[in-house]
Amino acid sequence: MTSRRLIAVHLLNDWSGSPLVFRQALEALSQTGYVVTLFTATPSGKGFLTDIDGVTTEALRYTWHPVKVITLINYLLVQARLFCRLLFFLQSTDVVYINTLLPFGAALAGWVRGCRVVYHVHEVSIKPWLLKVWLRGVANQTAQQVLYVSAYTARQTALARPESKLIYNALPDAFRQRASQISTPNTVFPFTALMLCSNKAYKGVNEFVAAARQLPHMRFLLVLNTTATDVEAFIKATTPPANCIVFPAQTDTIPFYQQAHVVLNLSHANAWVETFGLTILEGMACGCPVMVPPVGGVRELIDDGVEGFVVNALHPQELVDALQQVSADMTLYMRMAQAARQRAGFFSGHSFRQQINAAFSADNTLTTTASG
């Protein structure tokens, strides 16, 4: 492929799943002839999109604020600035690659300049409702192609005009290599439940702490994608029991998976539907049975009772019962651990890179790939 400019845009660079997947995609594309420039905001100083080989970064000014109105104002301002910057930066031969539906300013600028616009859609739980309608409308108008991380995401987003392609997320090769070295089954006790998530109530953090109170003979590790200061505030507000340890965001999560027997995702099905669930896939690659919500893309990763259990965090006794069952039956635990690791093998980095490169190939004719 001859060199061609690819202008990548991700709103908030942190340690969450969507920038991790975006990094993998940019690494693959930068090695196949694209000259990549990334526009992103990194208020915490670092994130998964920091220091990518072969990628030039242009900083955006954007910060999240606990007051929703202020966050919305900041969000609209960064979209206006992004639109104006890209309007003069873009060339008609550029490809504009947008991660999540949120950076609509980039999509509008790419559309005005006649660029090819590609979205990588991870999320469906966007509020307020009017914003979601606006973002879907912009994507429908501006995009030539949309990449979805799960069949659920494709169904829920339901963009009519762009061509669509389903590309499941994958784990970085370095992570998979380290995960393969973790012995299964984990024979170090006490039985340990691990959850890595954002510091949001709808992620099930309160249910996780409540389960720890009911199961004092187990250990519960909670890794929140936030600062140490916010973790202190969370501990003060929730007063977790002694068997529940809370940690801030981690750059290296392997040691946590190494201690875990089971990995949880307790997102509330009525408030935040997971579109994929990267931490669940990480746990499976490390040989951990998992527990996932009954809806969403994360549900596509497992068969109930095989690699783990489907549990509804809004029914707390389901979670407690499932934890008691898998911790008390080592034969069941070992069988699930083996099945989880085997299932994770289907989500390889090699396959992900092949699909990403095919989607962005210069000879790509954008024939439709139905995604459910």
Which CATH class of the largest domain? Answer: Alpha Beta
| Count of the domains | 2
Straight-line N-to-C gap:
31 Å
SSE string, helices as H and strands as E: EHEEHEHEHEHEHEHEHEHEHEEHHH
Task: Please supply descriptive tags for the structure shown above.
372 residues; Rossmann fold; seven-stranded parallel β-sheet; six-stranded parallel β-sheet; 13 helices; globular
Would you spell out the secondary-structure blueprint of this structure?
Blueprint: E1 4-12, H1 17-30, E2 34-41, E3 55-59, H2 68-89, E4 95-99, H3 104-112, E5 116-121, H4 129-142, E6 145-148, H5 151-157, E7 163-166, H6 173-179, E8 192-197, H7 205-214, E9 219-224, H8 228-238, E10 244-247, H9 254-259, E11 262-264, H10 278-285, E12 290-292, E13 308-310, H11 316-328, H12 330-344, H13 349-359
Parallel strand pairs: 1-2, 1-4, 2-3, 4-5, 5-6, 6-7, 8-9, 8-11, 9-10, 11-12, 12-13
Structure description:
This protein has helices at residues 17-30, 68-89, 104-112, 129-142, 151-157, 173-179, 205-214, 228-238, 254-259, 278-285, 316-328, 330-344, 349-359, and strands spanning 4-12, 34-41, 55-59, 95-99, 116-121, 145-148, 163-166, 192-197, 219-224, 244-247, 262-264, 290-292, 308-310. The protein has 372 residues and is an alpha/beta fold. The chain has two domains: 4-170 and 348-359, Rossmann fold (3-Layer(aba) Sandwich); 174-344, Rossmann fold, CATH 3.40.50.2000. It has a seven-stranded parallel sheet with strand order 3-2-1-4-5-6-7, with helices on both faces. The protein has a six-stranded parallel sheet with strand order 10-9-8-11-12-13, with helices on both faces. β4 (95-99), α3 and β5 form a beta-alpha-beta unit. α1 packs across α13 (349-359) and α3 (104-112) packs parallel to α4 (129-142). The longest helix has 22 residues, at 68-89. It is globular, with a radius of gyration of 21 Å. Residues 363-372 have low confidence and may be disordered.
